[in-house]
Amino acid sequence: MNQYDVAIIGSGPGGYVAAIRCAQLGMKTAIIEKYSTLGGTCLNVGCIPSKALLDSSHHYEDAVKHFEEHGIEIPGEIKVNLEQMIARKQSVVDQTTKGIEFLMSKNKIDVYQGVGSFKDATHVNITKEDGEETIEAKNIIIATGSKPSSLPFINIDKERIITSTEALKLKEIPKHLIVIGGGVIGLELGQVYKRLGAEVSVVEFMDRIIPGMDGALSKELAKVMKKQKVSLNLSHKVKSVERKGDEVIVKADDKKGNEITLTGDYCLVSVGRKPYTEGLNAEAAGVKLDDRGRVEVNGHLQTNVSNIYAIGDVVKGAMLAHKAEEEGTLVAEILAGQKPHIDYNLIPGVVYTWPEVAAVGKTEEQLKEEGVEYKVGQFPMRALGRARASMDIDGFVKILADKKTDEVLGIHMIGARCADLIAEGVTAMEFRASAEDISRMSHAHPTFAEAVKEAALAATDDRALHI
User: Fold this and answer.
1) Which residues, in sequence order, are bridge partners of residue 111?
2) Which residue, 180, 158, 183, 189, is CA-closest to 53?
């Protein structure tokens, strides 16, 4: 029987990063993955493939709508080759997952393909196509991730009523895509197919899209998506989803109880994700799960069984790849006797629509609820020369700072390249910068990053320069 210092069940961003860091710190490490490729949901059917399709569809939309204004003329009709688009997406996925294989080999990590389940607190059974194998490990990290949630009355047939996994490999562009859920996944994939020519209708139970983010971001993104002719049905409770041949009929009630009926050829169910612990046999190791199927952990991500830890989507908190990576690193360093730390308030959130939406820290709603006195500085993207040059004028940067100390409490932005810009906000808040600190930093001109400086100036005695 092979013996290890640490075994990790699951090879998503949390699992493979934990494995690499454990190996770097001198531990003999094994990683177990039930699928034929490494990388988990994120690399195979999540973050990476969705961004590939978002970029491809963005190029197409630019060619159709904006090239002529830029002085670029393309003779003949511009067409979508969906098969090639999906193939390119898959090649990006293949390159990325092969990169993880290389990293496992480089760091001398043993990879086991099969379903990992607990035999007891120090042994993991690996069920393979050709039989079963058991390994022993002093420490075990659960990194089994999550899978798409649904509603009890919805029958996901994976053909017309689909999840994000199927939406990434459709054989045709929908005529009318109905999206249940106005969160990150639904809006990103909805925008992909809207750009390619589909009619898109979003049905959201809450009174706004991206409900977990600052209200100003929700409002601005809704305005932009309506301009893009995406139909938003907010405060609507879905009560039935029925397939009839190639049609899907969705019925929902608005907040007054009035029923609407939407008929489309595809329905994307994107109502969140749930932790994946099925088949883990956690009870054999004595590991406790909560009532939502998540693994219960303490502040060090340690379960009730001292040598077993859990990270990523399978524990409480935001289901984000980069959060899982930080947690994987943290557990590895704890096992090595170090004293690492994660500030969960400084884990950024991003929506990869266009314009992109990104945020870190407290929302305005949270500060009000907590009774914190704060001030607001906001600056519109359209006031930037760089934004006008690239025709990306939607959005703004909003900075929330403590009214007395001027410490930055939250940064919220919507606009071009905000997924990258938010790192400036994370850095500033990590070092407990004030709005004035950011306002005194030189930002290159012309850039989108200037909006961060201007928003900081606006928060500092309302002295933005360019509005």
Assistant:
1) 31
2) 189
Other beta carbons less than 10 A from residue 192's beta carbon: 28
- pLDDT tens-digit map of 205-254: 999 999 999 999 999 999 999 999 999 999 999 999 999 999 999 999 99
Q: Which of 66, 70, 300, 445 is catalytic?
A: 445
Specify the pTM. 0.96
| Residue among 128, 122, 126, 242 at smallest CA distance from 180 | 242
Q: Give me the residue label for tokens 């009035």.
A: 258
Residues of the chain with CATH 3.30.390.30: 346-459
Cα distance between residue 187 and residue 154, in whole Å: 20
Tokens 């020369």 belong to residue: 385
* Distance, CA of 271 to CA of 183 (rounded, Å): 8
CATH assignment of 3-148+274-342, among 1.20.120.450, 3.40.50.970, 3.50.50.60, 3.60.21.70: 3.50.50.60
Instruction: Decide if 466 is catalytic.
Output: no
The shares of helix, strand and coil residues in the chain, as percent rounded to the nearest 5, are: 35, 25, 40
Between helix 321-335 and helix 13-24 the angle, nearest 10°, is 30
For 53-106, the pLDDT digits (tens) are: 999 999 999 999 999 999 999 999 999 999 999 999 999 999 999 999 999 999
Residue 392, φ and ψ in degrees, nearest 5: -115, 75
CATH superfamily of 346-459: FAD/NAD-linked reductase, C-terminal dimerisation domain (3.30.390.30)
Q: Which two tokens stand for residue 27?
A: 């531990």
Domain with CATH 3.50.50.60 in the chain: 3-148+274-342, 161-271
- Do 265 and 174 meet the contact criterion of CB atoms below 8 Å apart? yes
CATH topology of domain 161-271: FAD/NAD(P)-binding domain (3.50.50)
